[in-house]
Amino acid sequence: MALIASTRSTCVRRRVGAVIVLENRILATGYNGSPAGTQHCTDIGCLRQQLGIPSGERHEICRGSHAEMNAVAQAAASGTAIRSCTIYTTVEPCSMCSKLLINAGCGRIVYMVPYPDELSRTLREEAALDSGIYEDREAVMRVLHGAIPLQK
Ligand SMILES: [Zn+2]
Ligand SMILES: [Zn+2]
């Protein structure tokens, strides 16, 4: 489902999706893109892209916010507590998102692809926030390639 959310992304560099789950129920979803009502990087270009900023650096100059931020914001907007949740995300959270998730009381992070942000890992370790890579990549690929039919 995080992969499906990522298909709505409006980032010109990488599509990321996130799903916040508690007790097998989806509380919120998010993808990376600009705040509601503002122009997107796909419409007017992205400064990080134009300046050739390497992956993992200078997030603050892009108008887009991250999938995890948008999912947490969606929960906040509807007054949904996400303490003890698991967040599933297609890419390992950056340091800004890790700060947000730590203080939102997130209980676990599961990601598909690692992201080069040492501070992010350090913060999560210090805060004892359980996080790790999604192990069953074969299952993801089977879903992506349509090997698992949709239930009728
Ligand atoms: Zn951008
Ligand atoms: Zn982030």
Question: In words, what does this structure look like?
Answer:
By secondary structure, the protein is an alpha/beta fold. It has 7 helices and 5 strands, in the order H-E-E-H-H-H-E-H-E-H-E-H. The chain has helices at residues 2-6, 41-44, 47-50, 67-77, 95-103, 118-126, 137-144; strands at 17-22, 25-31, 86-91, 108-113, 130-133. Strands 2-1-3-4-5 form a 5-stranded mixed beta sheet. Strand 1 (17-22) and strand 2 form a beta hairpin. The protein is globular. It binds zinc ion (2 copies). Residues 11, 41, 46, 48, 62-64 line the site of one zinc ion (ZN).
Task: Spell out the key features of this protein.
alpha/beta, single chain, 7 helices, 152 residues, 5-stranded mixed beta sheet, binds zinc ion
Count the helices. How many? 7
Q: How far is the N terminus from the C terminus?
A: 18 Å
Biggest sheet, open or closed, and with what strands and sense?
5 strands, mixed
The residue fraction in helices comes out at 25-40%
Radius of gyration using CA atoms only: 15 Å
Overall pLDDT metric = 92
Which blocks of ≥5 consecutive residues have pLDDT under 50?
none
Shape descriptor: globular
Ligand names: zinc ion
Along the chain, the helix and strand elements come as: HEEHHHEHEHEH
Strand content: 15-25%
